Amino acid sequence: MPTYVAFLRAINLGATRKFPQDAIRAAVESTGARDVETYINTGNVRLGSSRRSPAKVAADLEEAFAADRGFEVPTVVLTLPELAAIAADAEELADGHDRLGMQYVSLLKQAPTAAQVRDIEAVEVEGERLVVRGRGAHLLLDQRDSYHLARLSNDFVEKRLGVSTSRNVRVIRELASRWG
Predict the structure, then answer these.
(1) pLDDT, tens digit, for every residue of 104-130?
(2) What distances in angstroms separate CA 103 from CA 48, 92, 114, 137, 167, one per listed residue?
(3) CATH number for the domain running over 3-79
């Protein structure tokens, strides 16, 4: 049974869109998934599924989440090798960025086209750099604590590359280590 990592978008934001970890686990298990585990309360889930397609796993999860919560929960599903590659890319990019203050990764529901990658990487913003590799859009910031002011944020990525959800690189590394 293949193992996947699902990243839920836009849950537990303030007083709305609440989705406790126990409820996430129960909803995931309702799809027939096994060995379900969550990590912190931002919507990171490891699961085993008989499905062979991450897109089909995502569709199953989104249907279960909507039924459980009453609102849509866009979900990005990666294979373990995809997660490992994104974590390795993050390390490599951090090592090559002289003034790294913070680093985030927007995890993409669909792989972008070469033209989309060229267009989004061509955007220049002082103190920010966006590099797309596979299904990860890596945001490298020169300053600490500047993500909420970033122009190349997940909103920017999502408008150009489709559904995505952002995680601090520390979370990506931890999940790759823990679940990889």
Answers:
(1) 999 999 999 999 999 999 999 999 999
(2) 29, 12, 23, 11, 9
(3) 3.30.70.1280
**Predicted TM-score of the model (pTM):** 0.95
Parallel, antiparallel, or unpaired for β 44-48 and 102-108?
unpaired
Each residue of 87-111: b (16+ CB within 10 Å) or e? bebbeebeeebeebebbbbbbbbee
Distance of CA 69 to the CA centre of its chain: 20
Q: Where are the domains of the chain?
A: 3-79, 80-179
Query: 80-179 — its CATH code?
Result: 3.30.70
Nearest to 35 by CA among 43, 21, 25: 25
Answer whether 101's CB lies under 8 Å from 36's CB: no
**First-last CA distance in the chain:** 15
